Structures are given as structure tokens and as C-alpha cells.
Amino acid sequence: MRSVTTRRSTVVAAVAAGALSLTTLGAAPAVAGPFKAPAAKALAVSLFPTDDLTVRDRGQRTGLRVDLPTEDCGAVVVCGLVDRLNQLDGFDLDPRLALRFDRPVSAATVAAATTVEQVGGGKDKQSTGVDRVVYDGTTNTFYAHPAEQLRPGTTYRLRVIGRDLRQAQTTFTTMSATDGLLDLRAQVDRRDAGGLTVDAVVPAAGTTVEYLRDTGTGSLTAGAVPSAITAGSYVFGSFTSPSWLRADRTIEQTPTRDSGPAVLGEQELPFLLVLPPGQAPAGGWPVAIFGHGFTGAASNVLLAAAANTAAGVATISTHVVGHGYGPGSQWRVTTATGTKTIPALGRGVDTDGQPGISSTDGSSTSPSGAAQAIGSRDALRQTAADLMTLLRAAGSDEDEVDLRAGGVSYFGQSFGGIYGTMLAGAEPDVARAGLNVPGGPISEIVRLSPSFRPILQQNLFFAGLLNGGTAGFTESLPLRGQAPVLAPADGALPIQEFIAGTTWLNRSGSPETFAPLLQNERVLFQIARGDQTVPNPTSYTLLDAGDLFDRASLYRNDLTPLRVANPHSFLLALGTPFGTAALQGQTQIATFLTTGQTIDPDGSDPVWETPIAEPRILLTTGF
User: Fold this and answer.
1) What's the number of domains the chain is made of?
2) Cβ(241)–Cβ(279) under 8 Å?
3) Gap between the Cα atoms of 524 and 417, Å rounded
4) What is the average pLDDT score of the chain?
5) What is the secondary structure of 111-175 as a DSSP string?
6) How far is it, in rounded angstroms, from Cα 526 to Cα 608?
7) Domain that holds residue 172
8) Does residue 505 lie in a domain region?
9) Is residue 289 within 8 Å of 317, Cβ to Cβ?
10) What is the pTM of this model?
11) Distance CA 218, CA 191 (A)
12) CA–CA separation, 496 and 490 (whole Å)
């Protein structure tokens, strides 16, 4: 059979024709109807991705740099996306494959005939088929994704050969997706982390804490901080972390052979530490870092640390980038002896163009600017680096409180499970990690979650891609394992390309990228069935990327009398009807962090599955 390898001129021509472009806005709906086999075998006249759309670059680990066409790119945010993709040293780890044929083809036939196989690799060579198929009958173009996440910095052969199809193939190289965060970790290693600076130590019993929010609009706004801690102590203070984050919420993209971007300065960050009651054991209290969720703040540790405190573990937390409101925010702490205010050092900045500073302002790039597609990628990488610094500070010998040196663990809820996966994958000094309700990639969480879908609508508006339907757009994208979409909605294909491009750009700051770096014995995942904030299919993707299904426990919200529409926040629901589930989840994590053992929180009862009985249940949303 004749083998056809795509050349750049052919690919660029296909881009101009609208088959592969990130900028084509007028895709027509597919032609529905019964498939009739052509008299002659169909030929794939263009394949994507392909290294024909790269240039040589000795500064990159792969020796390549992406070189997509940039002419007539369209809206500012789309041009900004293409420009930033062209700084990368390879294609996505889960690329949107595009195979354009010279005549109509059967989507099922092409799916069965398409493989993505690692070039080289010996006995460990990766080879996978495809899934999530979309077929456009107007341009005879077959779209799909690899059935498995690909390896970073690796060359693959995309090939199609089968019944009614002539052989066609090309090679493409994946990006060094983990490189950026690993560079930041190496820089953190070379710096003196110092210790923790203590502002106040107060007894937990009889103390109330309020958070005075700096919203950027005048006086501070007070809000009570709920707590489940009844004994022990609260410690308020700060530590210093290097910062690479620019004002637009981006980190400089440097060639992957470099040591990473230059540190732009140091930032004083807050911490809130919960100490167990009584005297510290010999060598000091063991320490766990808690990572709070989206819209949360360091003060969420007063709910999250209940089981840790009972287990004799000190728990410390800080604000995520863009959280805790503005820098003038304060903690107001009232004890039996009086009231004092302590700097809370909020990390919010006004980047959304709306008046004031919200609970997440500054956690992502501007929705209307050229850097829109970066989203929260670099804020998450900066957050992971901050936690690497906090890990060293809390585990150092310079602390003003009696904490054990080294052996620091981590647990995080929601957003904290997301950047916590990045942290634990990139940072081998995390002793153990408990990751509650995480998922990935970020773009799929946004697309599938009813809570976050309006963000995608906003981004598509600024990209000029809204095509009507629910929430202003219809993307016609199947989930893993679902039947092919054979008649995508008018305008859906450009939306799919835009989503694929933003996912590609964000891969270096998304948790599934780092899941393969996790060692099974030091990680535990908790998933909630029917989660509407981080939908179950994104948790499946995360677990599948690292082959971590045996390290996951499923809270079956659907099997409990306390079933609610969205069980996402169950871990912090102490003091509510969800209190039993919350304490069970926290106890499972505390037991794992202290002993390495994974318990089933409800024993032989069915509400918790440890491990998950049938992981494929996570392929559907459950809502």
C-alpha cells in the first residue's frame, strides 16, 4: 500500500481550507444519512497533529517548536492562543486528531483503523486507539482523541489503514508538559526557604475568628469564619515565597532546555496553623498542609483540620493565588482576653474588569485579553511553587512553633485537590497526599460543570464563537466511551478546536499531566458520585492518566438517604446533616496521612466504595 506522509505545504493548505484551523469560524453542519461505501479506497489528504507544523529549535528539549499558521487568526483572544501555542515545544498530550479524507468515509471504520503509536520506547512502547469521535461530512474530516493520555516529550506516529482506506501516516511530538513546574521546583530547592514568622498564638477553645475582606471598594467587610476545632491552638503568621507571576497572571514561557523563568521578586504570604491539644511529641508535631478550594481561603483549615487535630497532626494552610480578597484583608481574632487584628495578606487583585476584588479575582487571566486562553494555568503553577516553599518552611528547623522537621504531608479539597495533584506529582518531598474531589483537565471541568459553564460562554463570546443553544453555545462533544457525533451543530467545530487549543496550552498547569508522576503508595483520592462542580468524567480522566484507580475511594452520594443535588463540598460539611460523611472522609485522609493505610470509612456499608467497585461509573456525570 502507498504510504502518505503529510508535508507542511499540504497541511497549511488544509488549514486554509478550514480542516485544521484554530481560527475557522464558519463550519457547516455535517450531512446526515446512511453511509455508502465508495468504489475506491479513501485517502487521508491531511493529518493533524504533525511535526510538519514545527520548526527546529535547539533551545527546546524536543528540538522542535510549534509553528502554526498565524495569518487571519481572527479575534484577539484566538490570535493570542495561536501565538502562545507557537511557543511550545510540541503538541498536546491529548491532542484533537484531525484526519481529512478525499471522499466520504465511515466514522466507525476510521476509528477502528486509526492508531497512535510511540516511536521507539522498546518494551514500554505506548500504542493506543482513539475515542471521542466527531465526523464532519461536509469536509470529510474525522476528529478524535487518543484513548490514552500520551507521554510528554515523546514522538508518536499517527497512522490510519484499514478497510476502504489507503494507508496514511505522519509523526508528531508531544510537549514537555511537566517541564515548567519542575523548573520552578528546582529554583525553590536552590533558595533558602527560611521558617515561619509567627504573629499570634491563641487557644482554639473560646476563640472566634472573623475574616475582614478587602474588596477594594472602601472599608473592610466582616464575615464569620466557621470552625470545627474545639481544642488546641491557632497560630497566625506568614512566610516568604519567590514569585514568577506577572501582573497579567502569566509566567514567562522560556525554552524548555533553560532553567525556567527568572524570579520576579518575593511575596509575603499568610498562614493559619492548627496545633493539636497537649504537648508536642518528641521531635515536634507532624505537619500536613491543607489546600483550600475555589472561592475559599486559608481559614477553611478550621473546618478541614478536625480529624487531623484528633489524630495529633498539625495542619497549616495559606491562600491560593487570587484568593482571600485584597491585600488589606485581616483576621479579627477574639479571645477571652480581648480582640486583635492580624494581617491576612489576601492575594486577590482586580483582573476581571469589574468593580472591586472578588473571592477569586486574580486567579486567572483577563477574559477579554490576548492571554485569555492561559486561564488559571500559571496561577496554579505559582500556587504549587508556593506550597513547595511552605513545605520547606514548615519542615525546617527555623520554626517558632514546635513542628517536626521534614516528612510534611498534604491534603486538599476541590481546587486544592487539583493543584495538590500538581504539587504531589512534581514534589517528591510530599510524604503523602490526600486529594479530595479533584479532576482534570481544567477546561473539561469548566465545560461540563453547571457552575463553571458560564465561564466558557464568556470566553467563547470574546473569541467570537457563540453559536446558540443552551448557555449560548453548543459544542457537540462526546464523552469517553460515547457514540460518535455524526452531525455536529452549526458552529460547533470551531468551538471544539478552540477548546482543544486552550486545553493544549493549559496542559502544563493541569493535574492530569502530573498524575503519572504520583507513586501509588503515597496518594489517596476521594471522589463524590454526581459531583456537579468537578464532574465525575474529569475525575476518571485524572485517575486514568496515572493508572490510579486502585488509589481512589468513592463517596456514593446516590446511595445515601442524605443525597443532595451536588455533594462536591461534603468534606467540609461538619455541623450539617452531611457531618457524618464529612467526618468519615476526613478520618480516612487523616488515617492515610499518619499511617499510610487506606480504610473504608463506613466499613461494610455501601455508601463508601474503597477502592471503587467499577471505575467506569465515573464515565457519566451522574447528574
Assistant:
1) 1
2) no
3) 10
4) 93
5) HHHEEEEESS-GGG--EE-EEEEEEETTTTEEEEEESSPPPTT-EEEEEEEETTEEEEEEEEEB-
6) 10
7) 1-176+446-509
8) yes
9) yes
10) 0.94
11) 38
12) 12
